[in-house]
Design goal:
The chain has 316 residues and is α/β, with parallel strands linked by helices. It is 35% helix and 21% strand. The protein has 11 helices and 12 strands. Strands 4-3-5-6 form a 4-stranded mixed β-sheet, sandwiched between helices. The two termini are 24 Å apart. Bound molecules: coenzyme A.
């Protein structure tokens, strides 16, 4: 996480909002912002990757694949995974970015898991990293309160027991109304003086519409993965939800019948860091996790994209 904090009080000085509104509507108290002009998503992703490798005690040249989930790549190309590969010295790895907005980490994790399961790769680094402050309009009170910067990384390897990714359910439903998107900078609306003047390079969101879709989508898919695997709330050690809004997380936990102590929540400290929320939860809760714990990871994001992963924790 970047060190610099952007609090609700700070935002009160920037737009017409207040701490109470933000806390009660979203659960967010502060977010982190990467202030250095010469650093971006690849920097944060590399820092997270280096820490994961240190913790595992292996060197970067043992990595086979790097998947970086992000919607804020350093450049549209080359991929941020290429920057990370170079920065950490993963000389034997190939890598690519995966774009699925707030479901990016989930989709990257299932993709990396499939590579391990097939035997095509032995060590896969899955990174979720976003410098949301680079596409947030700090004059738009409906979006600027929500997002923050951050990165998290996990290292996937084959397990020698039954632990690992057991099942996943993932969905995409192309949203022609574009309730959550970045209008310009892609091939349809390349950068021009007009797109910049019209502030079209910032993320736009119809919050109410996305909220309704996200609440139903995340709760449904989480309940569905429990049912499909004959699990009930007692079997689940933790829900690891994407951190977009505390009310969406609560609705998902209620639907699953989970008590609040079984739900990872750190949205108060970091806001919505897009692809980084789930690995940041795993990082914050790592000390509490035990070998064999059943975890349900769930996310919903722009696209629309959403899904849930059922895994058993293999460490410790
Ligand atoms: C953005 C979000 C927090 C807004 O909460 P909401 O309860 O839906 O609020 P609304 O958008 O209906 O706005 C309610 C009122 O608060 C106002 N408002 C919006 N932002 C505000 C802010 N930062 N401070 C104070 N008031 C604000 C609105 O203008 C509106 O006023 P009005 O009723 O006079 O028109 C919520 O819609 C949300 O979390 N959406 C999904 C976000 C998300 O998950 N995005 C990523 C996908 S993973």
């Amino acid at each position: 996480m970047p060190k610099n904090k952007l609090t609700n009080d700070d935002l009160e000085q920037m737009v017409d909002t207040n701490d109470e509104w933000i806390r009660t509507r979203t659960g967010i108290k502060e977010r982190r912002i990467l202030e250095d002009d010469d650093k971006a998503t690849a920097f944060m992703g590399s820092e997270a990757a280096k820490e994961a490798l240190r913790e595992r005690g292996i060197s970067a040249d043992e990595i086979d694949v790097i998947i970086c989930a992000t919607v804020t790549p350093d450049y549209l190309f080359p991929a941020t995974a290429c920057m990370i590969q170079n920065e950490i010295g993963a000389s034997n790895a190939y890598g690519f970015d995966l774009s699925a907005a707030c479901s990016g980490f989930l989709f990257a994790l299932s993709t990396g898991g499939n590579m391990i399961e097939s035997g095509r790769a032995e060590k896969v680094l899955v990174i979720g990293a976003d410098k949301m402050s680079s596409i947030v309009d700090y004059t738009d009170r409906s979006t600027c309160i929500l997002f923050g910067d951050g990165a998290g990384a996990v290292l996937l390897e084959a397990s020698e027991d039954e632990t690992g990714i057991v099942d996943y359910i993932q969905h995409t439903e192309g949203d022609t109304n574009l309730a959550l998107y970045q209008p310009a900078g892609g091939s349809l609306n390349p950068a021009t003086e007009d797109t910049v003047a019209d502030r079209l390079h910032y993320a736009k969101q119809d919050g109410r519409t996305v909220f309704k879709k996200a609440t139903v989508g995340m709760a449904d898919v989480s309940a569905e993965i429990l049912e499909k695997n004959n699990l009930d709330a007692d079997d689940v050690a933790y829900l690891v939800p994407h951190q977009a809004n505390l009310r969406i997380i609560d609705a998902t936990a209620n639907r699953m019948g989970l008590d609040s102590e079984k739900v990872m929540v750190n949205i108060d400290k970091y806001g919505n860091t897009t692809a980084a929320t789930i690995p940041l939860c795993l990082y914050d809760w790592e000390d509490k996790l035990n070998h064999g714990d059943n975890l349900i990871l769930a996310a919903f994001g722009g696209g629309y994209t959403w899904g849930a992963i059922y895994l058993t924790w293999g460490m410790k």
